Amino acid sequence: MRALLKTAPGVGHMTVADVPDPTPGPGEVVVKVAYATVCGTDVLVHDDKYVGKRPLPFPFILGHEVSGEIAEVGPGVEGLRPGTKVGMESIIGCGTCYHCLRGNHNLCPQWHHIGLTMDGGFAEYIKVPASLVIPLPEGAPLDSVAMLEPLSLAVHTMHRLSPRPAQPVAIVGPGPIGLLHLQVIKATGAGPILVLGRPEDAHRLQVAADLGADRVEAVNSIEEAVAIAREMTAGVGMEIVIEATGVPAGVQTAFEIVAGNGQLVTLGLTRFTELDILQVIRKNLTWHGVVASVRRHFLEALRLITTGRVDPSRLITHRLPLEQGVDAIRLMKERASLKVAIVP
Ligand SMILES: [Zn+2]
Ligand SMILES: [Zn+2]
Questions:
Q1: What is the pTM of this model?
Q2: Which residues surround ligand 2, an ion (CB under 5 A)?
Q3: What values do phi and psi take at 12, rounded to 5?
Q4: Adjacent-strand bridge partners of 65
Q5: Where are the beta strands (DSSP E) in 149-237?
Q6: Which domains does the chain have, with CATH numbers?
Q7: Distance from Cα 133 to the centre of ligand 1, integer Å
Q8: Which has the closest alpha carbon to 248: 214, 274, 285?
Q9: Residue 85 forms beta bridges with which residues?
């Protein structure tokens, strides 16, 4: 089959090539890929900036946001058969550690992740443990289902925040993660919702407005962001702030615009930044880190899609064949694009 491979460490080293067709072992299934969407993580791997729990197994197939149809089931797999349309989880836990036993394999120290520590879905077929696949109800849209993984992260965030109707929310960073959070937080009834971006984010902010943000603003400085947040809340600040930029200025902006007693979520993969910890104390803040998601989040994300409450496919700006997989990764870096889908 054809597959998009990352062949070696370093920037780039990606190519579409022939690899052996996967065959399912005991407890495994092979899925014929319908859609595989490109994630910011894939871009980090392309750029040699990804910091993982395990070394990457070069050469390997990238791609962890996948939908498709079961092609083959391995020995011992029950309840799944060829032809069933599926989405899939991306993390496999050890099953026996403290966190796995509590259903939180997103925190397993021994985790495996499709498209990162094992072959992923930028290919015609993907082989995964049967426990990862999520059979779909009739008619579930496979393009949106491919985005279950990032959408389930937004569901996980909601579990942490428990937003209330009419709570002012700011989303800093109108990239795919920010806009999926916008769709889900909108479905909770919280608001008004402010989405902040940079002047070069005009296209993304327009999408945010189309998706129902109450206000979208391109700002050049933290001070501008603070002024807008104050104006919207009679000087109080935003009760919930979701940081999804991945750059230090975004994190600093989030800490400035959050209200006293507010909740702040950092999602952007920033490593080090200067923060005034006194702000956390004096604002009586609750600061959440949210990492990945597990079955319960995926199932709620699927329900959001099938009930029409959110439509992740509205973020797909490009659909490319597998042969143009390297272009798909590069397109994700451009601010004119949001989600890029590879359609094998
Ligand atoms: Zn992802
Ligand atoms: Zn574990």
A1: 0.96
A2: 93-94, 97, 100, 108
A3: 80, -125
A4: 37
A5: 169-172, 193-197, 215-218
A6: 2-146+311-343 (3.90.180.10), 154-289 (3.40.50.720)
A7: 16
A8: 274
A9: 69
Cα–Cα distance, 77 to 321 (Å, whole number) = 31
Tokens 């937080």 appear where?
185
CA 17 remoteness from chain centre: 27
Q: State residue 283's pLDDT score.
A: 97
pLDDT tens digits along 116-152: 999 999 999 999 999 999 999 999 999 999 999 999 9
Closest ligand to residue 148's CA: 1
As a whole number of angstroms, the distance between CA 90 and CA 141 comes to 19
**286: its two tokens:** 């609750």
User: Nearest-5° angle of CA 225, CA 204, CA 304?
Assistant: 100
- Tokens in use for 196? 């902040």
Kindly give the pairing relationship between strand 193-197 and strand 215-218: parallel
* Distance of CA 94 from the midpoint of ligand 2 (Å): 4
Residue 223 Cα to ligand 1 midpoint, Å, equals 32
Determine the distance separating the centroid of ligand 1 and the alpha carbon of 9, expressed in angstroms: 20
Looking at the CA of 88, which ligand is closest? 1
